[in-house]
């Protein structure tokens, strides 16, 4: 392995493990880790987290050996961070295979320090591992186009099956493959071989429904599908445009787009493939009502390769070239000054990614939270306080299911979300609603109530309703988690983000 690639991998690992334990799990992390622990038979989690939920179990199965006993969170994140570094290496292979070793190294560097990829691969989420398999799928497809070998085409189908087995929504990438083949008539498209690749993909993914059927949970996937189809939009249509380009790096996106224009005379099937791979998830999730910060992560690899292609090969205007030749009197051909300028531009782009990534991995105290962007401040501490200071068997009412997941993971206390809808079409099938929380409180079946600012910011209605219940049932503050904030004068003040109340009839 070249020393430059080793240095890039080391930088990628450093950004993904630095202060990895500063914050506890967010809701999705708690769910996936809880599934892994239940799969491993950990008695702390089997009562609270069913093995089968919305997604396939490949990633949770990989994690399960680390979750056999006790409370585990750092180990799960380390596994994801290692898979994130593996993705950086896979991007190098992809870029080098498409455009040469230099492009591969630059693309790997961009992904190594890209805030979008760094943030997601520091969390126990499905998207980081899924993108590793997606990048390898793209690599196998490139190998097939270049060498026309049957093995690589079938391998692409099998790798896409693994990608779907990590997160089933990645099936949209098959649309990218289809679009590429449809738009590139020069690429050989044998029907029988395509059927074999699709059969391989289906056979790999079939382990998920087969395992559900053998476990007697064949209706689980159908229930989640109905819920997803009827979910209300959680963000505006401009959500991805506002969040993803800055997370990828505006200069990276500009370099990728600019390179497509300035190098348009050198366009080939390679650009068609990368653009098709980007378009598939972008179009699907833009139209899909439910949006998540990490959903467009499969676009990271092709965007980085296109940006690296531009940064290493974008032509320098002749007027600037003549000016640089006056500075560089060394000789003919590409001047050292031109290479120096390109290196300086690459350094600026890299620094524009590294600074926000470094800021993100050091931001452990924040009163705001975006799902998929990191851990929840105070969540782990509140859960552990409940585990230590409340009787075994205590039942907790939270504002929403997100905090309920965190409380169940760290506090090992049964928790219910007030905002969970009694309508089965409007709720996650894993969550049990409380149609009449007044009745539960009146009969002393709920013992603690947890308010959190993150859920309150999303639903003022349920926040006010929770406070009404707290006042009605003599709520008494027994614990509060704070983060650092600022007041109207700009002075640093503690801001309460999680408040635990003890209630009684």
UniProtKB/TrEMBL annotation:
InterPro entries: LipidA_mod_glycosyltrf_83 (IPR050297), RgtA/B/C-like (IPR038731)
Localization per record: Cell membrane
Matches recorded under Pfam families: PMT_2
Secretion signal, residue range per the UniProt entry: 1-22
Key words, A-Z: Cell membrane, Glycosyltransferase, Membrane, Signal, Transferase, Transmembrane, Transmembrane helix
Residues covered by the Glycosyltransferase RgtA/B/C/D-like domain: 55-209
Domain of life: Bacteria
Predominant localisation class: membrane
The keyword Calcium is annotated on this UniProt entry: no
Transmembrane segments: 74-96, 103-119, 195-215, 244-263, 272-289, 295-316, 337-358
Keyword match Aminoacyl-tRNA synthetase: no
PANTHER family per the UniProt record, alphabetical: MANNOSYLTRANSFERASE YKCB-RELATED (PTHR33908), UNDECAPRENYL PHOSPHATE-ALPHA-4-AMINO-4-DEOXY-L-ARABINOSE ARABINOSYL TRANSFERASE (PTHR33908:SF3)
Name of the protein in question: Glycosyltransferase family 39 protein
């Amino acid at each position: 392995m070249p020393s430059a690639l080793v240095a890039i991998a080391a930088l990628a690992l450093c950004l993904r493990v630095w202060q990895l334990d500063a914050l506890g799990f967010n809701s999705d992390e708690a769910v996936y880790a809880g599934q892994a622990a239940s799969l491993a038979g950990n008695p702390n989690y089997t009562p609270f987290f069913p093995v089968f939920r919305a997604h396939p179990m490949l990633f949770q199965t990989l994690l399960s050996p680390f979750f056999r006993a006790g409370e585990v969170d750092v180990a799960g994140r380390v596994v994801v961070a290692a898979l994130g570094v593996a993705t950086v290496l896979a991007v190098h292979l992809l870029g080098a295979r498409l455009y040469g070793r230099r492009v591969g190294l630059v693309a790997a560097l961009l992904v190594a320090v890209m805030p979008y990829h760094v943030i997601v691969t520091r969390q126990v989420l499905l998207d980081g591992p899924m993108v590793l398999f997606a990048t390898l799928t793209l690599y196998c497809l490139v190998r097939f186009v270049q060498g026309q070998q049957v093995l690589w085409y079938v391998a692409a189908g099998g790798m896409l099956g693994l990608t779907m087995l990590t997160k089933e929504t990645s099936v949209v990438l098959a649309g990218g493959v289809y679009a590429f083949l449809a738009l590139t008539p020069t690429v050989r498209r044998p029907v029988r071989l395509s059927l074999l690749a699709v059969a391989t993909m289906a056979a790999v993914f079939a382990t998920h429904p087969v395992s559900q059927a053998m476990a007697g949970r064949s209706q689980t996937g159908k229930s989640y599908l109905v819920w997803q189809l009827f979910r209300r939009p959680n963000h505006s249509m401009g959500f991805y445009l506002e969040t993803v380009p800055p997370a990828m790096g505006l200069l990276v996106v500009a370099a990728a787009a600019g390179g497509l224009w300035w190098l348009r005379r050198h366009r080939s099937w390679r650009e068609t493939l990368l653009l098709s791979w980007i378009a598939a998830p972008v179009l699907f999730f833009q139209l899909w009502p439910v949006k998540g910060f990490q959903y467009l992560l499969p676009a990271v690899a092709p965007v980085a390769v296109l940006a690296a292609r531009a940064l290493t090969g974008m032509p320098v205007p002749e007027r600037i070239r003549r000016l640089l030749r006056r500075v560089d009197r060394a000789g003919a051909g590409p001047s050292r000054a031109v290479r120096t300028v390109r290196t300086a531009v690459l350094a600026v782009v890299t620094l524009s990614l590294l600074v926000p990534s470094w800021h993100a991995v050091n931001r452990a105290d924040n009163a705001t939270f975006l799902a998929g962007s990191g851990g929840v401040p105070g969540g782990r501490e509140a859960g552990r306080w409940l585990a230590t200071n409340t009787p075994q068997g205590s039942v907790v009412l939270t504002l929403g299911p997100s905090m309920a997941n965190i409380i169940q993971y760290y506090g090992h206390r049964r928790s219910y979300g007030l905002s969970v809808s009694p309508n089965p079409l409007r709720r996650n099938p894993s969550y049990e609603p409380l149609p009449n929380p007044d009745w539960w409180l009146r009969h002393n079946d709920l013992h603690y109530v947890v308010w959190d600012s993150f859920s309150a910011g999303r639903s003022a209605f349920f926040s006010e309703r929770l406070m009404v219940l707290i006042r009605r049932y003599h709520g008494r503050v027994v614990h509060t988690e704070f983060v650092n904030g600022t007041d109207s004068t700009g002075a640093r003040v503690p801001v309460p983000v999680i408040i635990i109340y003890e209630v009684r009839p």
